[in-house]
Write a structure and sequence with these properties.
about 300 residues; 12 helices; 12 strands
Length: about 300
């Protein structure tokens, strides 16, 4: 339980509603900032504004999955007001307070470092990333189906990267009957992809391998689908880039050549916000319970 814990949730999207619900169920004292346009108020949660006074007693601060942008802005689909997280605001937090987010840009990392505050990035955890790969793969398949005139079954599909998202993406395509090529960098990933029935290749050979594909799913967050690569991709092909912004595809050149290419980050929050929210809520609440218990033991 989180009885006595003061938790502030700032901004976010529909995923945060699952987080709020979970924390309220655990008897935490929850204050919502940036939720002024929420149609149905939460029973058991208070509404607040982003001020130094509001943060003075917080044990934890929960930010959206994206954290802040490069200028410190915190986005909220439930508010039209601009919210900017500054050093002055964070200096009001107690030194034991923990800041939770999905992923943090340099601005937020530097801000927390300067204030000596602990920052937890949930999407850096293997368990969260693996759970999130499921709605990501389902969303990518939805986009592929909507933007092609062929079935996934029998298609020549390619997945770049064999990490947590790439693994689930390749297996989902295989389950639907696609012929799946997997671009890897490490010999151990090559071996595992081969063992699983995929057709592995090293990304250094990408130019030769894209010549006959229908679908390309990229999970590598660096520029890999370059203009040179795109010159050898069939015009019928569709590129779906699942890497975080700005992705790993030369979208300008793809458009110029007439190859359909889409950047599709953050799919869990778009296609399955309730499931994605529950993934975050379960992990977040577990971490907070452990943190609160350890702190109580020290006291």
């Amino acid at each position: 339980m989180l009885t006595g814990a003061e938790i502030i949730i700032i901004g976010g999207d529909a995923r945060q509603l699952e987080v709020v619900q979970k924390l309220v169920e655990l008897d935490a004292s929850v204050t919502l900032i940036g939720f002024d346009n929420l149609q149905k108020p939460f029973t058991g949660a208070a509404m607040g504004t982003l001020t130094s006074e509001a943060l003075q007693c917080a044990d934890a601060l929960v930010l959206p999955v994206i954290g802040t942008d490069d200028q410190g802005r915190v986005e909220s689909v439930f508010s039209s007001s601009e919210m900017i997280l500054t050093g002055e605001l964070l200096s009001a937090l107690p030194k034991h307070a923990v800041i939770y987010t999905g992923m943090a840009k340099p601005y937020l990392k530097d801000l927390c470092d300067s204030q000596g505050l602990r920052l937890v990035e949930l999407l850096q955890r293997d368990d969260v990333a693996i759970y999130n790969s499921i709605p990501t793969a389902e969303g990518a398949l939805m986009i592929a189906i909507q933007n092609t005139d062929i079935t996934i079954h029998g298609s020549q599909s390619m997945v770049l990267g064999f990490g947590r998202t790439g693994f689930t993406m390749a297996r989902s395509l295989q389950g639907l009957g696609a012929k799946v090529k997997v671009g890897v960098r490490k010999p151990e990933h090559f071996a595992r992809a081969l063992e699983m029935g995929f057709t592995p290749f090293y990304t250094r050979d990408l130019y030769q391998e894209v010549g006959n594909i229908d679908l390309l799913f990229n999970t590598i967050p660096t520029m890999i689908v370059t203009a040179q690569i795109i010159t050898n991709i069939p015009h019928r092909a569709v590129i779906i880039d699942l890497a975080s912004k700005p992705g790993g595809t030369d979208f300008r050149f793809a458009e110029k050549r007439g190859v359909k290419a889409m950047l599709a980050p953050g799919l869990p929050g778009i296609v399955a916000p309730k499931t994605a929210g529950r993934i975050l809520a379960n992990t977040l609440s577990q971490l907070m319970v452990e943190e609160f218990r350890d702190r109580s033991d020290e006291d």
